[in-house]
Every structure is written in C-alpha cells, then in structure tokens.
Write a structure and sequence with these properties.
alpha+beta; BirA Bifunctional Protein, domain 2
C-alpha cells in the first residue's frame, strides 16, 4: 500500500471515531478550557505540587494501554508530561473515550500531580475534555533531509513534532525583544514607515511591483525603509529605528528569502563610528541576555562576540588575503587587468570600485569567521553614504561579517543634496544600461535633503541572519516561520 493510501485509510478511521464521539454526545472540538499550570511547571515545582489538583491542556503525543489502565504523554508549549488513566477513577464511559484517543488529539486534563512507582512525575487523570480531534495522523518519521521541504511547507506539523524547532522561534522572539529593549533604553524611538512605496529606495535590489486601482499607479514593496527614516531625521526626530519587513525580488538560497526582517537605525549628529560602537554593544548585549555568555557555537565553530571587534579596511583585507595592494591601482583599466590576473572575469565597463568589491567577495568573504568590521567601501558601491574626507573615492561605510556572512551594513549618511542628486543620476544611467537593481531617482528625497538633514550615522542589521548565527541554524528557512517556497502544482 502506498504512503498516501495508508494516510487516507488512517484518516478515515479518525473520521469514523469523530462520528462515534458525536453520537455519544461528546463535542470533538470543545470550547474554552481554563488551565492553572503547564507541563513543565509541574515538573519544576513538583515538590510543592505533589498531591495537588492541576488543570492543563495540550496534545497527546503517545498512548499505551495495560488492561484497565493506560498512559499517555501530553505536550504543551512548555514541554511534556505523562498522564495516567485508570478505569476505576475516570469511570467506564470516560475510559472508553480514552481508548478512542488518537495521537495528535488535544485534551483538557484535570487530575492530581504524583510520581509513579518508577519515579516518573505524572498526572493521575480524574477527568478530561476533548478540545480538538486531530483528523490527520502525525508523521512517524519527520526528521531527515527527505522531509525538509515538507517541514517548511507544513510548518504547523514541524512545530508539533520537533520541539527543537519551536525552541528556535522562541529564541528568535527573545532576541528581537532584547533588541527592542536595548534600543528603547538608548533613547531611540521606534517608528513605522510605508511598506508600499511609489519609488523603492535605500538599497540596490530588484523590487516587487504591485498596482493600486483607485490611484491608477504602480507601487513597490519596499526593499528598505532607509529613505523614509532619513526623512524623519530632516523632520527633527533625532534617534529612530524600525524592525521592518522588506522585500526583494531575488533568488532564494540558504541565506536569502524574498521577504525578510531588518533592523534599521538612524542617529542624528553621529557617524559610522558611532554605528560601529552601537553594533558591538547591541549584539554583545543581546547574546549575553539571551544566552548568558559571549561565546556561542555555530556549525562546530565558536563565535566570540566580546567587544571590541577588529576594524579592517576593505583594501587592507584584500591585500591580506591576496597580496594585491589596490592603493597602487588608480584606474579602471588597471583594476580590470589586476582582476583578470587573479582569474576573475570582468566586464569592459566595470569600474575600479566595482572590481574591488568583486575581488573582496571572491577572496576575502570566505575567510571572515569571527565578528569583524570591514570599512572604506568604494563610492560606486555606496550611493547613499558620505564620502571619506581623506580619499573621496571611498566612503565612510562598513559591513559586519560573521561566519562568512554579511550581518550589518552602515555608513555616515550622505546629507549633501547636490552630491546625492549626482549619485542618483549615475544610478539612473545604470538602470538605462540594463541594471534592474540600480537605484531610481527620488526627487522627493532630494527635496527633503534640501531642507537640511543633520549629519548622521545609519545602520541596517539582518535579523534573520543574526538569528541564524545565534541559534546555530544553517538555513534562513530555519528561522523564518513561513519561508517563501516554489509553488507545487
């Protein structure tokens, strides 16, 4: 018999039981049930709760009978606990109902906390209530690579049968809670900006396009909230942050999901060095509060979040890895020749700055394991960042890398409207040449800058990637409850 046929047969058995329950006058999908404890609370406080009446609710995960008595394991969010059913205590009718229980059914339990002869903390059931009859059987073998796609598609089942998956998402919630707490305590104001924008800005990425019927216009799902947050700086809101959902119409991988969560932060009268300090303090504080240590494991590698973190220029990092000193490479042609000499294919129109970035991605990223700031990015790569005063070919920008992953991107914000316009025009030229990810012209943002934006530091942190590191998760899909998946026809 095929697996699908077997499941259909098991489901029919459960449908028959559902009908039997209704004929007995039992509501298979009960109403509100008031609990006074959780499974883990009984275990943790057993010395106090032994012999006490308890009321708890959860899902039946196993069941076994021994004549006139039986056992089951009940699981709630806190953990699981053994239930003991005895025919003489619950009565013949209720014991018959116990015999009809299926794995996955949700019950409300009333009983007494006790310890069995084998020493296992349990609940001696006196009464129970059906709260939800499970019509689909839980999978017997849910773990393993062959089920990984199904785990993401049916996250609700994944959460039921894999407690470690629930633990990851509980940790994610705790991490975001600590981030928000830290930002609030530092005097930053949490704000909200539009998710649908007439001009997508704040990053170089391909946007999703939608259409508004009443306004008869295209709108874009935001690729970043940056330009709206900086408009708030113009308006006098000096320290703002947003934990935001952003969307980029790009490929899917273990590190990319089209819908993702970012933390964006802007601080008036600051710069990228202030953002470096903030990044170190924020991340180390969250790790310490959530995990009680500065050193955590990821893929058998220990990551030490203890500040200070090394600060290395992009050119120095390239020289350390390849021996190539790009301080001595002054033209686009020289840069292209250098890249080709290193085995890279580059286009005839690529600039020195773009080639520097390609070499960095090809040779340096894979070497960056412990937290490190890489700063001093070429101006071609940073259309929204302030130029470096000593060398205007570069910007006051940094990225944070941990375990070969870019975790944060920050810079001293460009607040010169004339320079910003020129950089937007350069981006527009790239779009005309076929670069769908290049920045669009945003006249309203230029207009905002013309009213005067204070010098500022700004930073974006990838929450999903940060949670991946902190929970030892190898794929971004493991830290997003409902990741984007290819449609199954």
């Amino acid at each position: 018999m095929s697996e699908s046929a077997n499941i259909s047969e098991l489901k029919q058995v459960r449908l028959d039981k559902l009908q039997e329950l209704r004929e007995l006058g039992v509501d298979p999908f009960g109403a509100r049930f008031e609990r006074d404890c959780s499974a883990q609370q009984i275990v943790d406080d057993f010395e106090f709760m032994e012999g006490q009446k308890v009321k708890l609710a959860g899902r039946i995960m196993s069941k076994r009978r021994h004549g006139k008595a039986g056992f089951a394991n009940l699981q709630d969010l806190s953990g699981d606990i053994q239930l003991y059913f005895r025919k003489d205590d619950v009565g013949e009718d209720r014991y018959e109902l116990f015999k009809k229980l299926d794995i996955g059914d949700i019950l409300g339990i009333e009983g007494v906390a006790f310890r069995t002869q084998k020493g296992e903390i349990s609940v001696h059931v006196e009464n129970f209530t059906y709260l939800s009859k499970a019509l689909s059987p839980l999978p017997e073998k849910w773990h393993g690579l062959k089920d990984i796609e199904m785990r993401y598609r049916q996250r609700y089942v994944d959460l039921i049968v894999n407690p470690e998956v629930r633990a990851v998402f509980i940790k994610r919630s705790q991490i975001i809670k600590e981030i928000r707490k830290y930002m609030d305590e530092k005097g930053f104001l949490e704000v909200e900006t539009p998710m649908m924008q007439p001009i997508p800005g704040g990053a170089t990425a391909r946007p999703f396009i939608t259409y508004h019927n009443s306004l008869d216009m295209d709108l874009y799902l935001r690729i970043a909230p940056e330009l709206y947050l900086k408009r708030l700086l113009v308006g006098g809101m000096e320290k703002v942050y947003e934990i935001n959902r952003s969307f980029r119409n790009e490929g899917i991988s273990t590190r990319h999901n089209p819908e993702f969560t970012m933390l964006e932060i802007y601080q008036a009268y600051g710069d990228y060095e202030d953002m470096m300090n903030l990044m170190e303090e924020l991340t180390s504080s969250v790790v310490d509060k959530v995990f009680g240590t500065m050193v955590i494991k990821f893929e058998d590698q220990e990551i030490d979040f203890t500040p200070p973190w090394p600060r290395v220029t992009m050119l120095q990092a390239i020289q350390d890895c390849t021996g190539m000193d790009f301080h001595q490479v002054t033209s686009d042609q020289e840069a292209r020749q250098a890249a080709e000499g290193m085995g890279l294919e580059v286009g005839p129109s690529q600039t020195r700055g773009e080639i520097i970035n390609e070499i960095f991605e090809a040779f340096v990223e894979k070497t960056l394991i412990q937290p490190v700031f890489i700063y001093g990015h070429p101006v071609e790569l940073s259309p929204l960042a302030k130029r470096n005063a000593a060398d205007p070919r570069f910007t006051d920008r940094f990225e944070v890398y941990i375990m070969q992953r870019e975790i944060a991107n920050a810079f001293s914000e460009l607040n010169d409207p004339l320079d910003q316009r020129n950089r937007f025009l350069q981006q527009v030229e790239k779009r005309v040449s076929g670069d769908a990810e290049a920045h669009m012209m945003d006249e309203d943002y230029i207009n905002a800058l013309e009213y005067g934006m204070p010098p500022a530091g700004g930073m974006g942190i990838g929450i999903d990637r940060l949670v991946m590191l902190m929970t030892d998760s190898s794929s971004i899909r493991d830290v997003i409850l409902f990741p984007t998946l290819r449609r199954r026809d």
